[in-house]
Design a protein that fits this description.
five-stranded mixed beta sheet; 7 helices; about 50% helix; alpha+beta; two-stranded antiparallel ribbon
Length: about 240
């Protein structure tokens, strides 16, 4: 019975057996080079190419794919390395600041020069401070609770989670009333677990710098550095939500 007259099921079963045999004997064609050279595979366009040519083409395609993936990994590694270096520079500035005012000035300078952040602010919860409330310091805002506090900050203190996205008019007017530059996106990052101490506010003139779908890990590490430095300048602050 010719191949064309075999039932489809029989042809499929034979094909499965052939495929299984070749999988178990990968050196099959090495022992039969003449057979390998005679095989052809129909192309979508109708042309036929040898099996070797088809394998070489597939290997080239896979190699290009792997090269693209490697390039993405290398770019990501370079970006992460640059972030770590910038974070280290910030840490040095925070450590070297002798006062809360020096600390915040160094923070703002680092945010502008190293991270492209247009405006930054340290918001402190008065009830979370261990000692007397600090004197008025540029870049530091005491955030009293109540109806005057914008909803975004109330939500952050309630959930203790980082929030990123567009900067609304209410929040902008409350946090940055003296900033003339247009601010379009904002990151609200809790200082300490549960936002006990307060919030680190980072605002940008770019719409996409702080997005709702961006990862929060790096921002949280940044806020941890700031929280530790602020507590050291204030003589410590209690744990808890206050």
């Amino acid at each position: 019975m010719g191949e064309a007259h075999k039932p489809q099921q029989i042809r499929d079963e034979e094909a499965e057996r052939v495929g299984a045999y070749l999988a178990e004997h990968p050196d099959f064609f090495e022992q039969r080079p003449a057979l390998l050279e005679s095989l052809t595979i129909p192309h979508a366009s109708g042309a036929a190419v040898s099996l070797i040519e088809r394998q070489v083409t597939r290997l080239k395609q896979r190699n290009r794919h792997l090269q693209k993936r490697l390039a993405v990994l290398v770019d990501t590694a370079k970006e992460n390395e640059a972030r770590v270096l910038r974070l280290n520079r910030l840490a040095r500035r925070l450590i070297e600041g002798r006062s809360l005012e020096d600390l915040v000035a160094g923070l703002q300078q680092s945010m502008r020069e190293d991270f492209g952040v247009s405006a930054s602010l340290v918001g402190l919860r008065p009830q979370a401070l261990a000692g007397p409330q600090p004197d008025r310091v540029p870049g530091v805002r005491l955030l009293e609770g109540g109806a005057d506090l914008p909803a975004a900050l109330n939500d952050l203190f309630r959930t203790g989670r980082c929030e990123c996205g567009p900067l609304g008019d209410e929040l902008r007017a409350y946090l940055f009333p003296e900033v003339d530059e247009a601010l379009r996106s904002v990151a609200l990052v809790p200082l300490e677990r549960g936002a006990a101490l307060g919030v680190l506010v980072l605002a940008s003139a770019e719409h996409e710098q702080f997005r709702p779908d961006m990862g929060a890990w790096f921002l949280e590490q940044l806020a941890n550095l700031v929280a530790g430095a602020v507590k050291a300048r204030l003589g410590g602050a209690p744990d808890g939500r206050g």
